[in-house]
Specification:
2 domains; 6-stranded mixed beta sheet; alpha/beta; inorganic pyrophosphatase (n-terminal core); homodimer; 37% helix; 6-stranded parallel beta sheet; elongated; 11 helices
Chain lengths: 334, 334
């Protein structure tokens, strides 16, 4: 059984952060660029809870809230302008460092108190008070724990935000960061009556048509190699153009190749510029794709890695295929 | 908050089923045709628990275990022959009636005791003792509760089986049958150390290549109509032939169309024979596709329905499109 650790910096404890929040009349909340369900949902739930305690709150994100998250209660209150005047208490949610909100310490008043609520192991402990639980699947878990400790009763709006946070970052409870605690906290949220169908429809069923067209292009170019162990797909600049899709819409498409029976390694090669190919590599059970990506100056994790190749697509496909086939051959002989 | 109800027949209580199981030296377990993760996982977990209590158990399913479930601990012990001699205690798991195991009451010894463990509201209470919890997302929830009440400590093998059961029938905790209790029971299983990556890989990442090819065909024929509210896909007999796919491999493909932003109704038309078109209809938020299917002699539910049309594909596509457009038009004007 995993031990859950709250990583705090040396000088303070969760109780001190709770104490700061209890006393604060005004709190400004911040969440990171390219916002997702976890940072937005957790920030909103925290803010709504603080508001229930009688505090004045404001919400900031450098980017507009993506339309698929606009159903979240309170989302229309999120601003792209920094709060002015700046309140004394600033609470950063799901941010490893101030760069994640496009801010530097110089933009923060000298007498401000910075609170840092996060779940990334890479967190830089930039706050005056830091609550970083690297064992939490989502910062939503940490926010829910904090709200409980503040003694605020979770209402349906907070529960909807927190459920969205957890379901987003735990990959619908599938990713290996999901723990027994994730499910126990989620159970408490379901007790509040969250509307599963509505949330899942909003989060998972709002795919732009351009993404489906991109999937179509990717599947039309799918090749199965290395005795069925390698599935490789390519997307040309022309594919993006005719689909009307931006680069980021291709995210996750590689999983269609990865989920084919017998496949150990899946690769998606994207032409992002003239003679500029971005490769995304995934493996299922044993192959270390980080090592393959590293051969081409890239990196990542054992099961998910990427690299950029400054050569034409056909050549990129050839050398990645050769590298994967070689790794599979060596692996098999071990 | 939902009240959880155990639907028992008038003559007995869960305690009586527990008492029967406690006393039984031998138990034969049964699960239904076209087995899935819930019936196989729950049957195996129940059997392993009874074995831990010192009982002799046997496992029966009319069909071979699908290869994607062969990782389940104990699955190799499941037989396609009825146990002989037949033990006195017969435990049916996830079966609404004996027809689900291709059996009739005449095949059961007169002095046998039939136990019926299920979660379908349509259960026929065919057992001498029946434990049917229609509020459980999976019969795995009922099995876990029963094992707990039998006082058997859940081990990793049972937990792996039960997690697979629950994740299968709750649609990865997405379907609206998922409750707070589903998550609480799942948390207890994660405490036993189940390997999420391995289970999810086995259940969800074992798609036959033929299915991906079928998806490719379906996407190549995707049309968006009715101002973006209708997404329709077709699969010809030729598509199935060249993909090497059986009819049942197309199951769920309609969801790719349903998940496009703005789409309210998604339709997949399959040519299953000469002039024989099967239509699958799904809606997202409000349209009653059951009513549309009913116009063509079909039926189902408000958000998922089907029908069969004995006309050529082009004609079928035309009349279904017209019917959906009409329903959308009427709905919009309400």
């Amino acid at each position: 059984m995993k031990v859950r650790v709250n990583l705090m910096n040396h000088e303070n404890t969760p109780e001190e952060m709770i104490e700061v929040l209890r006393k604060a009349p005004r709190v400004a909340l911040f969440s990171h660029v390219s916002p997702d369900g976890d940072c937005i949902g957790s920030m909103l739930a925290m803010g709504l809870a603080l508001e229930k305690m009688g505090k004045e709150v404001s919400f900031y994100n450098p980017n507009p809230v993506p339309s698929y998250l606009s159903f979240l209660p309170g989302s229309s209150r999120i601003r792209q302008e920094l709060p002015s005047p700046q309140p004394k208490i600033l609470l950063f949610v799901d941010c490893t460092d101030l760069g994640r909100v496009n801010m530097s310490r110089s933009e923060i008043s000298r007498d401000s108190i910075v609170l840092n609520l996060d779940h990334h192991i890479s967190n830089l402990f930039f706050g005056d008070f830091n609550w970083v639980d690297a064992h939490a699947s989502a910062v939503g878990e940490v926010a829910l724990t904090l709200i409980n400790q503040l003694g605020v009763e979770i209402d349906l709006d907070m529960a909807t935000n927190l459920y969205t946070a957890i379901v987003t970052d735990s990959g619908c409870f599938e990713y290996s960061n999901t723990t027994a605690q994730t499910h126990r906290l989620t159970a408490d949220l379901l007790d509040k009556g969250v509307d599963l169908s509505n949330i899942h429809h909003n989060i998972f069923d709002q795919k732009p048509l351009a993404r489906i067209k991109l999937l179509q292009c990717a599947l039309n170019g799918l090749e199965i190699l290395a005795d069925g162990q390698l599935a490789i797909m390519t997307l040309s600049a022309e594919d993006f153009r005719k689909s009307g899709a931006e680069q980021d819409l291709s995210e996750g498409l590689v999983n269609h190749a990865r989920s084919i029976v017998g496949v150990e390694v899946a690769v998606l090669l994207k032409e992002v510029g003239p003679q500029e190919i971005k490769g995304g590599l995934r493996s299922n059970l044993w192959l270390n794709v980080n090592e393959i990506a590293a051969q081409f100056g890239g990196g990542g994790h054992q099961r998910a890695a990427g690299c950029t190749l400054r050569i034409p697509m056909a050549e990129a496909k050839q050398i990645i295929t050769t590298a994967v086939e070689e790794a599979l051959r060596i692996g098999r002989n071990h």
